[in-house]
Hints:
Layout: H1 5-11, H2 13-16, H3 18-32, H4 42-70, H5 74-101, H6 107-132, H7 143-148, H8 172-184, H9 203-208, H10 225-231, H11 250-261, H12 277-280, H13 302-311, E1 314-319, E2 322-328, E3 350-354, H14 365-369, E4 376-378, E5 400-402, H15 410-414, E6 424-426, H16 431-435, H17 438-441, E7 447-449
Parallel strand pairs: 2-3, 3-4, 4-5, 5-6, 6-7
Antiparallel strand pairs: 1-2
Bound molecules: heme C (HEC).
Heme C is lined by residues 73, 75-76, 184-185, 187-189, 195-196, 198, 209-212, 215, 225-226, 229-230, 238, 240-242, 245, 248.
Amino acid sequence: xxxxxxxxxxxxxxxxxxxxxxxxxxxxxxxxxxxxxxxxxxxxxxxxxxxxxxxxxxxxxxxxxxxxxxxxxxxxxxxxxxxxxxxxxxxxxxxxxxxxxxxxxxxxxxxxxxxxxxxxxxxxxxxxxxxxxxxxxxxxxxxxxxxxxxxxxxxxxxxxxxxxxxxxxxxxxxxxxxxxxxxxxxxxxxxxxxxxxxxxxxxxxxxxxxxxxxxxxxxxxxxxxxxxxxxxxxxxxxxxxxxxxxxxxxxxxxxxxxxxxxxxxxxxxxxxxxxxxxxxxxxxxxxxxxxxxxxxxxxxxxxxxxxxxxxxxxxxxxxxxxxxxxxxxxxxxxxxxxxxxxxxxxxxxxxxxxxxxxxxxxxxxxxxxxxxxxxxxxxxxxxxxxxxxxxxxxxxxxxxxxxxxxxxxxxxxxxxxxxxxxxxxxxxxxxxxxxxxxxxxxxxxxxxxxxxxxxxxxxxxxxxx
Length: 465
Ligand code: HEC
């Protein structure tokens, strides 16, 4: 027999099931249709039950073929399958009983009919759930009704994404691995619905493992059940997530592997784990360039670049077609305020400025104030106190300010309150992080991250370009 026959027969299952449904209902109606001569319809009832039985078994066979061919997980279909077989067997028994007693009013026959009707209804409903999803019927009900009756309202998770300018600070597990599990696994591995007794909603539940024990092997992390199942061929019945569900993209799988490889830490950041930017860059929030102002600037002459690079600055165009620049003193860590004066000819071009680890002081702020297209300013590990931070209110495109391990305190940060564009300030390990309670920070017009853990120095902080 040609190979395609089986999958083809399997796919007729959703069609064929309607035959036993129709015949069974028809037989039951005939059996209980009120009439004077009880046995008038008996031959028809028998024939209807015979057809019901034959088509019910045919439906079972096509169902089992479908299950085998399409790689459904057994847990997903087991109730539907068991009840489907039960329905067919009940049908057969009822047929034999009617034949034996030559009547439809025997108590055994009443019980048989009741079981048949129930199992048919439930099997059909479970089958519908498989093809249309479990919330197909309930999701059209008003939300209040859904909650009252406890129909689960599917949690929605945003696709995993990460901040391009602060990705190194992201916690590997909380901000990367868990969101990937939420997206791909949580629908079947949560507190209410824990397939294989495995819950993947938190560190604790992940460590508990499933019915076959731990899913993270700490000694040989790359052989962990968690990843092994994801790496099985799609057709394998143990493949996770099951074939018919959304599959994680390659880069998501790569990040989980990287997390296991880096030692399955729950505290480390991406930076500490030594993750390369290539692994995360595809998750950077889209339209990245849209945060940069639109400018009408002539591209700079190569000579200007050469001269500044010669002085020790790292300068990079954001893209080949876009004139704005990223400027950093990463290789020029003894840069003083006056060294920065040589940036005067390109001030309007600078949109990312990183002076981390340099010797600049508050006196550099007026020069920075002239960078009209600045969007990201990094002053990590500098002596900056922020006494004249109100000047930065003139930087009408500034979105992010990085002040980790600088000397900025609450009063000086307050000078930036109601800044026209500032959205986020990173201020780990500053006097600010110590003196302030988190509630106080909420009064500011921008978000402040102070963290409550030691921020490590990142591999990229000292990377030489
Ligand atoms: C559509 C539902 C569904 C989704 C989505 C899903 N799983 Fe599963 N998972 C199951 C079922 C059903 C079982 C139990 C059957 C089995 O053991 O094969 C299971 C079992 C497991 C087990 C074995 C647990 C044990 O101890 O036996 C692991 C590990 C697992 N899943 C990991 C994952 C991961 C990782 C993801 C996301 C990338 C995921 N699953 C997504 C349905 C799902």
